Amino acid sequence: MRVAIIGAGVIGLSSALCIHEQFQGLVPSLELEVYADRFTPHTTSDGAAGLWQPYLSDHGNLQETLWNKETFDYLLGHMHTAAAKEMGLFLISGYNLFTEPVPDPSWKNIVLGFRNLTPKELELFPGYSYGWFNTALMLEGRSYLPWLTNRLTQRGVKFFHKKVESFQELFSQGVDVVLNCSGMRSGDLQPDPELQPGRGQVIKVLAPWVKHFIITHNLKSGIYNSPYVIPGSEFTVLGGIYQHGNWSEENSAKDHKSIWDSCCRLLPSLQKAKIVEEWSGLRPARPSVRLERESIRLGNLQAEVIHNYGHGGFGITIHWGCAMAAARLFGNILQEKKQLATPPGPRL
Amino acid sequence: MASPKVAVVGAGVIGLSTALCITETCPSCSVTVLSDQFSPNTTSDVAAGMLIPHTYPDTPIHRQKQWFKETFTYLFAISNSAEASEAGIHLVSGWQVFKSVPKEELPFWSDIVLGFRAMSEAELLKFPQHRFGQAFTTLKCDCPSYLLWLEKRLKAAGTQMYTRKVADLWELHSEYDIVVNCTGMGAHQLVGDKQLFPVRGQVLKVHAPWVKQFIRDGDGLTYIYPGIHRVTLGGTREKGSWSLSPDANTTRDILDRCCSLEPSLQGAQDIEVKVGLRPSRLCVRVQREVLSQGGVKLPVVHNYGHGAGGFSVHRGTANEAAHLVGECISALQGSSSRAKL
C-alpha cells in the first residue's frame, strides 16, 4: 500500500506522521512517500510566526473549532515532555486588542486563562478600548518541521524533492492513495476557484525584551490587516498584512513601512529593535478547509485522493485535528479496499 | 547654602536610584556617588529584578505598598517607551503556585500588578504538586542594563562617580554637607548595624529563550524568571551565610527544582552561577540621622536593608530618601541663617 503525500509544510508532514503512527502496525506493507518542491525552511509554514490562535469567528464551522481544540490539546500534552524544546513548542501569553467590545471567540475555553483586559492594561495600548488576555502556545515551524521530518525519517518514510504536476503522475507509478497537502499551489493540481492567496508580509526583528504576543484587530479591514507582534524563541515577528488575491511573494516597501510604523506605534520599545529578515508568503485561504476524499477514475482503476488544504492563516492552529481527520478518511479507504479484496460472490 | 554637596555611598540599585532622585528634587545639589563596587559587581547585578514585593515584617504595609506603587508606576512608563530596551525594563506574565492554599490569597500588591487573578483549574494541571496559584503580569528589570542606564542618566545630570572604599562616614564630612548611606550589606560594617544580616542567594542564569513566562513557588525558594537575554533560576535563602562562593550541590538542586516546574529547562544551555547576599532587615531603614563628633555635625540619610525586595521598592525608597535629603538641606539652611544673626 503506497501512500504519497504532496506537500511538506505543516499539513503534509503532520498528516504523514499521523497516518504512519495509526496504520503502520495494521498495514504491514504501508509505504509513505512525501513529494514537495519546497522543504523547510522554505515552506509557508516556516514563515509563519507559529502562534496557536484561530480567527475571531468560526462562522458556525464547528468542525474547524473542534480540529483547533484537538490541536491545542495535543500540543499541550507535549508541553511537559523533553521533546517540547526540539519541537519549537512553548507557552506564551498575550493580548488581543479591539477598538470596540466584541463577542468572545469560539476558542475562549480552549486556551488557558482567557479573560478581558483591565482598564490599567488598556492604558498600555492607546486607541484600543477593549481586549482579551490569554495564554496560548507557540509552535515554531522552523523547529517543528525538522522535528516532524526526523520522526518520519526514523519511521522509514521517504522524501522526494520534486514538483508533482498531476495526481495521475503518481498513480501511474503505482501509488495507491494520494494526500493532497499542497496548500497554496493546490490549484496547479486541480483548479479550485475558492482557493485564493491571502498574502502576508512580516519583518523579523531582534527584540528579546518582548515576552507577550500582541494582536490588534480592525473589524473593517479584516483579519491580520492590523498590526501584530509575536515573540519567538529567537526573533520577534512583526506583521499586519492580509491581501486577498495578491500572488506576489516579493517584499513590498510600502507594506514594510506600514508594518514598521504601526508596530512601533503599538509598542514604542520596538523602535530600538534590529531588523534581521523580511519575508512574504501566501496564506492558502478558502471559505472552509477542504478536507475530503475524492475518487478518481483512471482507466479501470479507482484512485483515491484525500484533500487537506486551504488552512489560510490558521494552519499551525488546526493542523493536528486535520491530520487526524485525514487519517480517519484513510482508514475508510483501507476498509473499502479490504471489502473489494474479498473473494468474488454473487456477481458471477 | 548655594549648592549643597551630597555624597551617596553605594552604587547598587538603591545608591544610583537615590542619587538620581536627589538630582531631580534638588537640581542645585552637587551629587557624587562613591562606591567600592559598580555594576557588574554589585549585589543588584545578581538579582533577577522582578517586581514582586518582599514583605518586611516591621515596616507598615501602607508604606511598603506606596513604595511598590511608585516603583511600578515609574518602571511601567519606561517599559512603554523607546528607552525600554536600553533601561532593561519589560513586562512579563506568569504564575505563582502554592503547594497549599496560602493564608493570604490576596497579597497587598495584587491591585498594583496587572490582571491579578487566581489560576484556573486547567492552568493548575501543569503543576500537579501545587493546589493553588495566582496569575498576573508584572515588570522585570534587567539589572546590569538598568544600573548602566541609571549611571548614564546621572552623568547627564552632572553627577560624579568615583570608585572609593568609604571605611567611615566621617571621612566625608570635610568634602560633603550631607551623606546618603546606600551601602546595602556594607552598612553592617560601616555603621555597625547589627539588625542587618545577609540572606545568601545563589542563582543560575541560563540560555533558554523559549521560556516567556515566569513561574514562582509561593515559598519564594524556587523561581524561573525570564529576562531579556537569560533566564534566572533560583534559588536559596540562607540566613546568616556570608559566603559568596557558588556551591555545586546547590546548583544541582536549583536545576532539579526548576526543571520540575518547567521540564523544558532540561535543554537550557550555558549555565552561569551567581551569588548575592541580600541585605536583610526586619524593616527597611529609610531614616535621617545627625552624627555628632567633637562639636561637628554630619547629616546622614540612611537608605538600606531592602533584603529580597530591593528592585520592587527601589524608586519609592529613593523618593523618600531624596525627600529626607531635602529636609537635611532645610535644616542646614535654617542653622546657617541662625549662625549669621
From TrEMBL, chain A:
The lineage's top-level taxon is: Eukaryota
Predominantly, its location class is: cytoplasm
Binding residues annotated for D-serine, in chain numbering? 228, 283, 313
User: GO CC terms on record?
Assistant: cytosol; extracellular region; peroxisomal matrix; presynaptic active zone
Task: Kindly list the positions annotated as binding D-dopa.
Answer: 53, 217
Q: What are the recorded Gene Ontology BP terms?
A: D-alanine catabolic process; D-serine catabolic process; L-proline catabolic process
Recorded catalytic reaction(s): these are: D-dopa + O2 + H2O = 3-(3,4-dihydroxyphenyl)pyruvate + H2O2 + NH4(+); D-alanine + O2 + H2O = pyruvate + H2O2 + NH4(+); D-tryptophan + O2 + H2O = indole-3-pyruvate + H2O2 + NH4(+); D-valine + O2 + H2O = 3-methyl-2-oxobutanoate + H2O2 + NH4(+)
- Please list the cofactors this protein needs: FAD
The record's Pfam families line, in alphabetical order, gives: DAO
Tell me which residues make up the FAD dependent oxidoreductase domain. Answer: 2-329
Q: What class of enzyme is it?
A: oxidoreductase
- EC number, as in UniProt: 1.4.3.3
Which key words are in the record? Answer: Cell projection, Cytoplasm, FAD, Flavoprotein, Oxidoreductase, Peroxisome, Phosphoprotein, S-nitrosylation, Secreted, Signal, Synapse
What residues does FAD bind to? 37-38, 44-45, 49-51, 164, 312-317
Subcellular compartments: Cytoplasm, Cytosol; Peroxisome matrix; Presynaptic active zone; Secreted
* Signal sequence interval, chain numbering: 1-16
Q: Quote one Gene Ontology molecular function term.
A: D-amino-acid oxidase activity
Gene3D superfamilies tied to this protein = D-Amino Acid Oxidase, subunit A, domain 2 (3.30.9.10), NAD(P)-binding Rossmann-like Domain (3.40.50.720)
- To which protein family does this belong? Belongs to the DAMOX/DASOX family.
This chain's protein is named: D-amino-acid oxidase
Q: Which organism is it from?
A: Cyanoderma ruficeps
The lineage, from the top, is: Eukaryota, Metazoa, Chordata, Craniata, Vertebrata
From TrEMBL, chain B:
Q: Which cellular compartments is it found in?
A: Cytoplasm, Cytosol; Peroxisome matrix
Q: What EC number(s) does the entry state? A: 1.4.3.1
Q: Which parts of the sequence bind D-dopa?
A: 223, 278
Required cofactor(s): FAD
For the FAD dependent oxidoreductase domain, which residue ranges apply? Answer: 5-324
Give the residues the record marks as binding FAD. Answer: 43-44, 166, 183
Key words, A-Z: Cytoplasm, FAD, Flavoprotein, Oxidoreductase, Peroxisome, Signal
Q: Name the Gene Ontology molecular function terms of this record.
A: D-aspartate oxidase activity; FAD binding
One Pfam entry for this protein is DAO
- Cellular compartments per GO CC: cytosol; peroxisomal matrix
Which positions make up the signal peptide? 1-19
Record's catalysed reaction(s): D-glutamate + O2 + H2O = 2-oxoglutarate + H2O2 + NH4(+); D-aspartate + O2 + H2O = oxaloacetate + H2O2 + NH4(+)
One of its GO biological process terms is: L-aspartate catabolic process
Physiological role: Selectively catalyzes the oxidative deamination of acidic amino acids. Suppresses the level of D-aspartate in the brain, an amino acid that can act as an agonist for glutamate receptors. Protects the organism from the toxicity of D-amino acids. May also function in the intestine.
Checking PANTHER family in the record gives: D-AMINO ACID OXIDASE (PTHR11530), D-ASPARTATE OXIDASE (PTHR11530:SF11)
Q: Which family does it belong to?
A: Belongs to the DAMOX/DASOX family.
Name of the protein this chain belongs to: D-aspartate oxidase
Q: Which organism is it from?
A: Cyanoderma ruficeps (rufous-capped babbler)
